[in-house]
Design a protein that fits this description.
The chain is mostly helical and 181 residues long. It has one domain. The protein contains eight helices and no strands.
Length: 181
Amino acid sequence: MKKIISLLNIIFLTKVASAYNGYGSFSFSEFLAGIDQSMIIIGAIFIVMFSLLFFSLSRVFKSKDSNPAIPAMISFALALLLTYWINKSGLDIEGLFSGIGISAETLNILVPLLAIGLAIILIVKLKAKALIIIGLLLIGISLTELIYEKLIPIVVGVVLTIIGILIATKKKKKKKIIIEE
């Protein structure tokens, strides 16, 4: 786990050349300024829906022979469709939260904290599989028009996916060795 944290620190602390900035330097504040507030809210809705659907579907498809990828893929597809429907329906999510007394400034603080908390819960519960899921989500989100700067989410997504796959294959090899002995 220390290796993963060190690798993530290196990625975030390394200056990345950016094509849109004439000086060739990267600013994390410029990256965050390029992300729209409604995109963050839609992303959080997707993550919450995916988590709830995955939790409930993993209970439904639970058996000795079941593949854990089945509830993951079904919940990913349903969460994506529900999020797409919410986005295309014209539902004013920001206005919805302000109507119940939560301001936009509070949402700017709460949504990232909830996303970090959800990521931590996923990592604790799913371990290496969570890294793969988070990495693929970052890659998928960066391929849309919702994010202005696409380089950082793609790089972080690819790194997290590779680390998750490496950890998962390492664990399978250990289990296989133990079973053979």
